[in-house]
Amino acid sequence: MRIVHVCQATTRGGLLRVAETLARVQRARHEVAFASPLVPGTDELIAAHWPHGVDGNRALRALRALRRRVTDWRADAVIIHAGSPGEGAFAPLILRRRWTVAIVEHAPDVFPLARPLRDRVLFAIKRRADLWAAVSRAGARSIARRAGVPEARIAVLENGVPAPPDIPPGDASLRLPFEAGPVLLGAGRPDAIKGFDLFVAAARELASRHPALRFLWVGGERAFEAEPVRVVPFTDRLGWMIRRARAVVIPSRAEGLPALLLEAWAVRTPVLAARVGGIPELTERLGDDRWTFAPEDPARIAAAAEALLSDERLGIELAERGHALWQERYTPEAMAQRWEDALTHATAS
């Protein structure tokens, strides 16, 4: 089977890391290509990037180039990785029936739609897909509610990630926070959806009581300080940082099934996360809610961090339980098998 992945992500965040991981594993069984505005993150990965612009909803040139690229690759199946419910550039791929079309909505609540007529049109197009999927049960419920379709219409195909690589940072300044004290690490765009303001507020509360504690956020367009939080751009050294953090903190107001969380569990780093999106489903599987906190509440973030800092055994226990769950369910191979079964069924249907 020839599989083409289409991903409009414009930063090397979790969505792109998950999409590239799936494509890389599928290469063992299929011919795989990858269409993205960004050059693939590893040399072994796939094909060409999509260099004609990233604003596919409005750029006709990009839309035509994408359709032509997929046609040239003679795709049997196209997997569209949607970061929001509305990428209009994907419509020609869905409406042309030369290939099986799968849409996976990674975070349907992150970018809520706001134009009723446009939303109805896009959802009508997406109903034409052979497979419409979310990465969590919460995501499936959200799509069903927004699109007015039965929840059973939306498949749940959970993410999987590899253990992040331990690449030493060449920049000595990236090592400095870890050498100076324990680090609480956040990652993603430093915006309201990712809860950056909540992270900063919690950090200020903690810094007054724990002067040795350091706070680092990875994902800004540039380096800057939001005292006491240091923000740095996305880097391929993120894995090194995850491995050495005292804990990874995910204060988001909306999420799908965060790659950052699964990557931390893969290397036995404790996670503290807001109960949003698919995160409560992980709590159900762990049977332990001590690693989560109520969203929108910096005081709860600070309290969860203090509990972890004061009890080393708690951090070890939570990290080990998370690692066991990652091994059981959230490896790249487990994700690829879920997709293999789903695509086989969709193609047969």
CATH class bucket of the largest domain: Alpha Beta
Could you list the spans in which at least 5 consecutive residues all have pLDDT below 50?
48-56
With strands numbered from the N-terminus, the spatial order across the biggest sheet is 9-10-8-7-11-12-13
- Specify the CATH homologous superfamily of the largest domain: Glycogen Phosphorylase B
- CATH architecture assignment name of the largest domain: 3-Layer(aba) Sandwich
Number of strands: 13
Mean of residue pLDDT values:
88
Largest sheet geometry: 7 strands, mixed
Cα Rg: 20 Å
User: H/E series, N to C?
Assistant: EHEHEHEHEHEHEHEEEHEHEHEHHH
Residues in β-strands, percent: 15-25%
What percent of residues adopt helix (DSSP H or I)? 40-55%
**Shape, please?**
globular
How far apart lie the N and C ends?
A: 16 Å
Return the domain count.
Answer: 2
Lay out the secondary structure.
Blueprint (H helix, E strand, L loop, with lengths): L1 E6 L6 H13 L4 E5 L24 H13 L4 E6 L8 H5 L4 E6 L10 H11 L4 E4 L2 H11 L7 E2 L15 H9 L2 E5 L8 H14 L4 E7 L3 E3 L2 E5 L4 H7 L2 E4 L8 H8 L4 E4 L4 H8 L5 E2 L4 H13 L1 H18 L2 H17 L1
Helix pairs in contact: 1-13, 7-11, 9-12
Describe the structure.
Residues 48-56 have low confidence and may be disordered. The protein is globular, with a radius of gyration of 20 Å. It is α/β, with parallel strands linked by helices and 349 residues long. The chain contains 13 helices and 13 strands. The strands form 2 sheets. Strands 9-10-8-7-11-12-13 form a 7-stranded mixed sheet, sandwiched between helices. The chain has 2 domains: 2-161 and 331-348, 3-Layer(aba) Sandwich (Rossmann fold); 172-329, Rossmann fold, CATH 3.40.50.2000. Helix 1 (14-26) crosses helix 13, helix 7 crosses helix 11 (298-310) and helix 9 crosses helix 12.
